[in-house]
Amino acid sequence: MWTRFIASAFLVLALTAPAFAQDPSSLQIFRSVQRQVLTYSHFTVFDSVNAQIKDGVVTLTGKVLMPFKKDDLGERVAKVRGVKAVNNLIEILPASQSDDALRTGIANAIYGNASLSRYGAQVNPPIHIIVERGRVTLEGVVNNNVDRQLAYSIASMFQAFSVKNDLRTDDEVKKELEKL
Prior knowledge:
The chain has helices spanning about 1-5, 15-20, 25-40, 65-80, 95-110, 115-120, 145-155, 170-180; strands spanning about 10-15, 50-55, 55-65, 85-90, 90, 125-130, 135-140, 160-170. It has about 180 residues and is an alpha/beta fold. It folds into two domains: about 1-90, GMP Synthetase, Chain A, domain 3, CATH 3.30.300; about 95-175, Histidine-containing Protein, Chain: A. Strands 1, 2, 3, 4 and 5 form a five-stranded mixed sheet that branches. Strands 6-7-8 form a three-stranded mixed sheet. α5 (about 95-110) packs across α7 (about 145-155). The longest helix is centred in the middle third of the chain and has 16 residues, at about 95-110. The model is unreliable at about 1-25 (pLDDT under 50).
């Protein structure tokens, strides 16, 4: 299912409706950019990549753990047929042992939970844990509100400065796609 494919790795590719309507090849570019990110072997649950496509120009945003990931992803997307330019605005998360401990602790707790473990069994687990200076953001797509709240509850048990829940449900993503 198309919604599940998007959910599987939490790549949110935002296409503005006018650009999408004017250029039918935007959908092809969308799918190719998505594939480039999802098949990138170093893309993990600790990274978040978003893309906006307008008139063949792809703007990449999000946060990744290592500088090489930003560069590699920009190069991969630039090779996509129909991409005229890439504006790579992906940020590099600062190196921090405490952030690393928080990341792995939350990931182990979420994906080790009996009710959420099915997400961890996916090739590209859909719940992404972005930690920056002790602040946690959960991103991605889950099946329902119960899973969203459970993941947030688990992450909130850790000693973070804050926990932000940006998880979305399959239905929410489906409605967003229908607007395009």
